[in-house]
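Service request form, structural biology core

Requester: graduate student, group of Dr. S.
Request type: structure prediction, single chain
Budget code: on file
Notes: please return the result as structure tokens.

Sequence provided:
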Amino acid sequence: MHTDLVAALDIGGTKIAGALVDGDGAILVRAQRPTPAQQDGGTVMRAVEEVLGDLAASPLWGRARALGIGSAGPVDASAGTVSPVNVPGWRDYPLVERVRAATGNLPVELIGDGVAITAAEHWQGAARGHDNALCMVVSTGVGGGLVLGGRLHPGPTGNAGHIGHISVDLDGDPCPCGARGCVERIASGPNIARRALENGWLPGPDGDTSAAAVAAAARAGHPVAVASFERAAQALAAGIAATATLVEIDIAVIGGGVGKAGDVLFAPLRRSLADYATLSFVRNLAVVPAQMSTDAGLVGAAAAALASGPEVTAAGV
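Core staff response, request fulfilled:
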């Protein structure tokens, strides 16, 4: 049992979660607020301060040695700022400085949410024991993170591993990011559903047009639903193979809502991967579902805080 603790924040467009986490990754204290995503930046920050206030009210707070933040992106860890796409009031918002001020100058480590989930999967989940891994979150968007040489590789700004914006279709649809044919534009949940609807899939009487509904239709054998997942799988396979060829990973972990689709995603993904990952050093690449629960963002933010300080160590981070 480690005596040192770290605080963790997981900041998204829906909720702001906080925790005190020990060196074994156990969450000892929790706090949460809804994200006032459409309000001004100061209002969003007040919600963060309320979460920190709840944590600080715990008798364990005094043992917290650092604070890790996993935030929806883009983030800029070098500048300490965040500009989450779905929180318009925060653009180049000086989150690290504000959190330091609110916590009495605790050391703060900022990473993107994809990197945070990667840290959690590497510490305690499906990538445990792998020194070179890619972890992906496939849901409303497609994000990710890398572990290279046994260490989390966030990159200078905290965005390394952002596989959703690798282009896999040179003449593909324009992506909101400004490029064309990005993995996210083909493989994210809303894009899987959009493509199925455009090609003639009709939702059931409940009118559910989510990717989960398309997955259910694909499991029942609906050819358009199957084809939409196959196209998503192909895009993911191309992005994963490109990453593996570039940096030699031996496992790719897929989480997020779309990652929960099961065989309708993983079967065509593994087939497609064989078409793209052809060189000897990437042929044995494993593709597996994520294991961490909804706490992955918090556990990963804690892992980053534990790994950042020389005086604090986490087993296996």
